[in-house]
Amino acid sequence: MRLSASRTLALVILAAVLVCAAAAGAGAWRFHHKNPQAPVVRLDEYVVMGWVGWDSSWYMRIARDGYQYVPGEQSSVAFFPLYPLAIRAVEQLGPDVYQAGVLVTLLCGPLALLLFARWARIRVEDETTALHAGLLLALYPFTFFLYGVMYSDALFLLLVVGAFLLLEKGHLVPAVLLGAVATAARPVAPAVVLGLLARRLEWKRERGERWSVLDFLPVLSALGFVLYVLYLGERFDAPFAFVDAQVGWGQTPGWESWLKLYWFKAVFSPESNAETVLRLCLHALLTLGALALLWPTFRRLGWGYGVFCAVLVGIPALSTKDFMGMGRYLISAFPLFLTLALLLRDHPRVRHGLLAAGAVGLVLFSAAFGLDHYVS
């Protein structure tokens, strides 16, 4: 019996979660045992250890101790509050802070992928293409961040996909509410606000209906962002402290970052090792690929999703000094994966090749993250 598209995608996601968890756990075991004095750790703890690294420590500190801010230095205010709040809520049920973070991601990530497939089905009215889009996103190498990593990407994606899905169904107020919650999770409020607003106006025009004042409600989806800015102003007298904190990571705004001079210096420096060069080149190529998909997204999915992706990709692409992190940020630009599926309708070999390469990348990146390599 042929499996339905939704069941097929669910099985692929389940397999990806299990395989990636095993790879990350194995990487954590290897990293842990590099130290001959390493204490004995239960086998199940390696899975959590495999999904906790790098920025996870910042979320842990926020969940436990709240925010701190030192001007011009790395500070926890750089990370928006929704994910740490979710961790704190789950922690009250019994898990420790790291287990709670992994559980939040594990609950949100797979659900976000399933909602994405439902959204894609509504947009293109083609179950097969929607399945292909779901597979392209589920097997995108950096999607392992949705399968348990203690990062906020899974929660943000769930909320923003849910918001656009509700918008497509005509549920404006719930869509705006989800959008407002989403803007408290990541510093990309302009993308969410403009995307929801443009899509709502476009949605009304497609139905031959006139715009009304209510159609501009998506502007209120900036509320989560605004509340965080107000909190920072009240607590630290620095409403945009999250921008200033980026200086601590070497992300100084200016023409050197805009022209990616840091990237060129790092890639062509004789002191850079092969891993660093490969990592920087991969993120740069993925960024260029995403930018290349923007115009097809405008044409095939409409101005609402085109604006959303253009702003969502454009903000980090412009502000990052060396493209690092772009591979992960592109997960949130979910309409691009549907655009890619549409473009590959008549190119099954290319699609199969991308899926195979993505599956291999998922496993390798999961293991690398568990080994404490800087992946994204």
TrEMBL record:
Q: How does it sit in the membrane?
A: Multi-pass membrane protein
The cross-references to InterPro entries, in alphabetical order and at most eight, read:
PIG-V/Gpi18 (IPR007315)
Show the stretches that span the lipid bilayer: 97-117, 138-166, 172-198, 210-231, 277-295, 302-320, 326-344, 353-371
**Signal peptide limits:** 1-26
Instruction: Name the pathway it acts in.
Output: Glycolipid biosynthesis; glycosylphosphatidylinositol-anchor biosynthesis
Name where it's found.
Endoplasmic reticulum membrane
Q: Which UniProt keywords apply?
A: Endoplasmic reticulum, Glycosyltransferase, GPI-anchor biosynthesis, Membrane, Signal, Transferase, Transmembrane, Transmembrane helix
Q: Does the keyword Endoplasmic reticulum apply?
A: yes
The UniProt entry lists the main location of this chain as endoplasmic reticulum
Q: Which PANTHER family match?
A: GPI MANNOSYLTRANSFERASE 2
Q: What is this protein called?
A: Lipoprotein
Q: Which organism is it from?
A: Archangium minus
